[in-house]
Amino acid sequence: MKLDSGYMQGIPDLLILHPNGWAVLEVKRSINEPFQPNQEYYLDMLDQWSFAAMICPENESEVLNALQQALGIGRQTRLSLR
Fold first, then answer.
1. The model scores a pTM over 0.70
2. Domains identified in the chain, total number
3. Domain span at residue 23?
4. Is residue 77 in a domain?
5. CA 57 – CA 7 distance, rounded (Å)
């Protein structure tokens, strides 16, 4: 689900709901793109509750693998070639 940053400043971009739990992802175009106010705060807090991470092209496979492990999904990540 795409989350609305207009509702709460700094809330991550995506919410993933799965039968084994939930996760949030903050999507960035680059690993060097700066965080907006409150983004790091929400990622840290939500990661303590379940799984939260910043994802970008440079770390996509690592984050998706960590997400699968956190949710207990036992198969390899399939990445889009786009």
1. yes
2. 1
3. 14-71
4. no
5. 27
